[in-house]
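EI: anyone free to look at a 319-residue chain?
SC: sure, send it
EI:
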Amino acid sequence: MKRYLFSFIWLIISSNLLLAQQMPQFSQYLFNPIYINPAYAGYKGDTFIQTYNRFQWLGLKGRPVNYGLAADGAIERFNLGWGVHAGNETIGFQRNSTFQTKLAYHLRINRLSYVSFGTSIGFWNQKIDEDKVDPIQKDDPLLNTNFNSIFYPDLGFGIFYYHKYFHIGGAMYNILGEDFLRNPSFPYIELKQSLNFSGGFRKEFLEGRAIEGSFLLLADNKSPTRIDLNMNVFLNDRIGVGLGSRNQINYFGIYSKLNSFNLLQFIISTEIRISDSLEFGYSFDYDFKTSFQQFNSHELSIGYRIKNKNFSVLSPRYF
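SC: here you go
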C-alpha cells in the first residue's frame, strides 16, 4: 500500500515539478551562462565544451536527475557566436529532453564593452516511462490518454551586455506561448513563456585574488519567482570557492500558502581550473524545506576549452 501511495503522491509532485522546472535547476550557471541565455554564445572567444550532471535530493526515490552537454564558440570574422545545448531531465517516470541551437551577434560599443543579441531554436520532448507508473487508480484519466511522448518547438531570444568587470542580460524562452504549444490530446502539460534576468561583477583585490558575485532571476506567469544569489572568491584565477542561496518570491500574495520571501536552498560551490584548457566544478545544495532536509543535491561539471588562435580580445573574458 505504501508503494502505491508513494507512486500517487509522486505523480502529483512530478506534475508540479514539470511546470516549475521547465528550465532545469542548475547551480553552476555562473561558470557558463550559455544554458540560460543564447546571447552568451561566443563570449569566451574560444570553443568551450562543458558537461554537467545534477543529482537533486539524493536518496529520494524518483528524484530529479539532470544531464547536459553544451558547446559554443566564436566566428570572429562576422562577429558571431554559435552554440548548441542538449539536456535530459528525469523526474520519477517522466523524462524531459531538450535540444537547442544558438546564434548570437556581438556588437562592440567601446574598447571594453560589448552587447550581444542571441536566438535559440530547438525542441522540447517529454516521454512517460509507463513501466515505472504504478498508480492507485488504474483508470485515472491522466494515465489513459494513449500518450507516452510529445514534442514541442522551442524558440528563445536573449540580450547580453558585458564589460571587463561586469555583465547583465536577460532571455525569454518558449516565445511561441502556451496557447500555441498546448496539446489538446494531453492538456495536463503546458509550456509557459519564461523570463530570466542575470548579472554579475568581478572585483580584484590584493594580488591574484578576486571576488565575483552574480544573480539569476527566473519568472513566468504561473509560478513563484525564483532568485539565486552567489558570491565567489578566486585565487590566481585557478581556484574559486563560493556561497549562494536559492530563494522564492511570492509577488502580490498570489500563492496563499507561501510567504512573501522563502529561502529554499543554501549553496556551496567550487571551481578548479586545472589548466588553461580543463576546468572542474562542483556544487552542494542544502535544502531548507522541511520535507527535503534529509535529501541534499550535488552537481558536477567538466569543461574543456579549445584555444581559438585567430581570436583576439582587448580585455580578458572572466565570465
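EI: The CA atoms of residues 239 and 272 lie 5 Å apart.
SC: 👍
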